[in-house]
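fold-stage: in
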Amino acid sequence: MSESAETVKALHAKSPQLKILLAAPRGFCAGVDRAIKIVELALEKFGAPVYVRHEIVHNRFVVDSLRSKGAVFVEELNEIPDTDQPVIFSAHGVAKSVPEAAKSRNMFVLDATCPLVFKVHFEAVRHHEAGREVILIGHAGHPEVVGTMGQLPNGAVHLIETVDDVSRFNPRNQGKLAFTTQTTLSVDDTAAIVAALQERFPGIVGPHKEDICYATTNRQAAVKDIAPRCDLVLVVGAPNSSNSLRLVEVAERGGSPSGHLVQRAADIPWHLVPENAGTVGITAGASAPEVLVDEIISALGERFSIDVELVTTADENVAFNIPRALREDPTAA
């Protein structure tokens, strides 16, 4: 062994020890993977620019990467010039008025809305058509909530954010109520709100299958599993990512002294990382790419002698089809 290699080995041996519990599942879900793939395939097939209404997913690294390839991100359709190039709707879904406006301008639209968000849209419309007053459990201002509420006329959907909101809600007819939920909520918080709704309105109709998506549920369950063993849980994600913020909450409620959101390795709160023989948990929100997880583990490895343990609580094999216009064989299923 060379003298330099011996030196590195000796320095590494003197490094403080750090255990890393790497949660699985973590990172990209099927809806996010599909949305990103739609932008990439559109750029390959039709060339730049490709216009995307809103961030395709809530992750700056992903958005910047797609922008460098020719994607142009806008907040509203009126920012897009007259064009034959593709216009893509983000994974969060859009209000009914958005595709109508696109159609009026003869835009070539590729809809990257997650199919599980479409499910919530369909439920809201179905309940409204059945004469029920619709409640949406979610966070005000989130793009998914804006899109779901926008499926129905103004005032037809009532937003409930907390258990306290339930006690303040006064429906027109208690016997004709239904609820749906945002797909990226805290499982525990939502369960408490649903229980309060059902207690106050025993006849309220809920979804046939839970609206919180499988990926949100699985990632929260994985964090619950590791949190009691961690001095700190790092959640890789963006500040505007609902599912990532919920993972921080789950970590702290689940027994970790601290949960912390980080976008990149530069955001690691070194003052919270245990100095020796501690344990750090790492997970990633559904819109955070694995390369950012690797970057953070590498940064920890530069300061500590790390031992990484993968903790798997569920296996995921979900995949969603891309739009027909982007398939190599348009007649394929």
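fold-stage: in (second)
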Amino acid sequence: MNERELQILLARQRSYFASGKTRPFASRMHGLEVLKKAVKDYEKELAAALKKDLGKSSSESYMCETGLVLSELNWMMRHLKNLMREKTVATPLSQFAARSIISPSPYGNVLIMSPWNYPVLLTLNPLVDALAAGNTVILKPSAYAPASSQALKNLIEECFPSRHVAVVTGGRRENQALLKQRFDKIFFTGSQQAGREVLRHAAEHLTPVTLELGGKSPCIVDKSAKIGLAARRIVFGKYLNCGQTCVAPDYILCDERICGSLTAAIQKEIVRQFGANPLDSPVYGKIINAKHFHRILKLIDPDKLVCGGGYNEDTLRIAPTVLKDVTFDDAVMQEEIFGPVLPILTYRSLEEAITAIESRPHPLALYLFSEDPFIQKKVLSHCRFGGGCINDTVIHLATSAMPFGGVGESGMGGYHGETGFQEFCHTRSIVDKKTWMDLPIRYQPYSSLKNAMLKMFLN
């Protein structure tokens, strides 16, 4: 789609939004119901596309993508009426007689740009929130996941007219053409580098932006942790989707006294979950493309290899890999790994670990394995991060009751549930002033009596 065609599409969406047809409760609910039915109908097609793009099993596709979309849809449909409702707030005595209300109003024309690692989840989840908020939407899925992009395009075109929701496929040329247009809201999920580019373009039109980025998410393991269970949950979170998860534990930072036992437990768990030869496992995914495959391989230092390191270039698979004796100066610690390589670093004191984390860009997620409430409280009170878990990994994003988003370099804004609805709305403040009386104290000319009354009201 060229730039002229995009302009025509966006003009149609602006006209449709201006007609008011996206705003009534019945219209929003209908859109969510239609989308829910389509996601269920397309479950097999979406799973097949995810298998082709990322090697995901049908179980993983449902657990981490389709099922979570349905969960967000169900939550939003249950709460939509209340979310749309105007809410009365307190009115200052100085504004008597009046009623003060806050009212959510849709932004209008929204652009959602999604990544390749969870192409279904990270396209449709923000779409659910944007539709619930009453917007029109242009979706731009990643060109790196072509099968998933085409399946999403087919699904959306079956559900919605393009004047309401449209899918634009393609690569960098289409991305650039979209970012040149004036939208009322941009929602982007992807890398920090691409996020900066989105933000630069949005600044040209002063467009509000939500950025869901990544970063090096640490996993602290305290000496009080239950080592076996910690290893099992770390291996699940790290090697899910072959490590291509924005909230995956990027590295372990563990007490040096338990490093040996934790490393052994992780090795055991890799075999338990993926078999003795993960490269042949039917439930283990693949790297998205050759570019990222070779990038990840360069991060593996053979001198620090504990297990894994094997790969198959034909299938773009890299075995679950663990590195030991890693420092923050190593190549693997200079960028977000976004692959199945797990470096293990150690600390001597908790203060040392906290300092190491806080001296670096704020991560999207932080995980802490500890049975000590004092340590749990100390880490949460001293470290800044988007979200996370105590004694688990990645599951914090799988609920509509909590917002998901980053902080600092890992993103801005959040979504899921009520936060997602609010992210695609502007909350208007409205004073409904009554006409049956009018206090004179705010009008000229001012007097000592009026000043005294003002001080009484405003203090």
